[in-house]
Design a protein that fits this description.
single chain, alpha/beta, Rossmann fold, 2 domains, eight-stranded mixed sheet, three-stranded antiparallel sheet, 11 strands, about 20% strand, disordered C terminus, plasmid
């Protein structure tokens, strides 16, 4: 994996202290789902994935089956040039306006999102880009304007090193607003979960999840089964004991929730 980005002026880490809340937005029509495990390994270096969404127009590419990724699907009737791109860019603007995250991670190799990256950065948040190292074009303009740009090789060709993330730069941005209470605890739980290796169904054995929490320095009161079950982001499979397992809850987001309209075409008419 290769990394290019702006020289950081503020060293921060998602492993200790308050995590940086990131919205992970995936160009589902151009990014293969096979790259997701690589993306998951890179995300903790940039911050904490507050939520992840994949955008498509009928061609889901398998993203709807990934735990912890919300699918925004406009359906086949919205197919057309840049329809899914419009959804992603529009949603990014709405998320920024809501102020619920400290930064963005765009998973795409499409230079068409350069304007979106620039607009988000100009609004005062950090924007990182993870580009699948597939084909001959790696999104050179995205790399030019993003705070950090990472090339993610497909799993089959990833070169294993002793510490592949050690040389990656931290992002340059103002210190994020700290999380408190339940929100902070849930963010750290999610961060620890993403360090585990789930099975084909997205499940992680509860004991392995507990070990990941411990190694991440996350403490909590009570039994892990009850604590995890109380968090909406998780789905816990019982019964309690040796066979208990946990995974990120599968969710989806409707087009209406993203653009406030029932179809992309309806929204475009109002914009132009």
């Amino acid at each position: 994996m290769c990394c290019v980005g702006r020289t950081p002026t503020d060293e921060s880490s998602s492993v200790s202290g308050d995590p940086t809340r990131l919205a992970v937005l995936i160009d589902a029509e151009n990014v293969p789902v096979s790259i997701w495990p690589v993306v998951q390994r890179l995300l903790p270096r940039l911050g904490c994935s507050w939520f992840a969404r994949a955008y498509a127009c009928g061609d889901k590419g398998g993203w709807g089956a990934i735990d912890g990724v919300q699918l925004v699907d406009a359906g086949t009737e919205a197919r057309g040039k840049n329809a899914a791109d419009f959804l992603l860019a529009f949603d990014a603007g709405r998320i920024r306006e809501a102020g619920t995250v400290d930064g963005f991670v765009l998973v795409t190799g499409d230079d068409g999102f350069t304007a979106t990256v620039r607009a988000l950065r100009d609004s005062g948040v950090a924007v990182h880009v993870i580009i699948p190292a597939i084909g001959e074009s790696y999104g050179r303009r995205l790399a030019q304007f993003a705070d950090t740009c990472l090339l993610a090789a497909p799993p089959a060709v990833v070169a294993v090193t002793s510490n592949p993330l050690a040389a990656l730069p931290s992002h340059s941005s103002a210190p994020s607003a700290p999380l408190h209470g339940a929100a902070a605890k849930e963010a750290r739980f999610v961060d620890a979960f993403r360090r585990c290796t789930p099975d084909s169904g997205g499940w992680v054995h509860l004991s392995k999840f507990g070990a990941a929490l411990k190694s991440s320095g996350v403490s909590f009161k009570g039994k892990l089964f009850e604590v995890s079950s109380s968090m909406p982001v998780f789905e816990v499979r019982g019964p309690k004991g040796l066979d208990a397992a946990i995974r990120l809850r599968k969710t989806s987001v409707s087009v209406a929730q993203v653009i406030g309209k029932t179809s992309v075409a309806e929204a475009v008419k109002e914009l132009f």
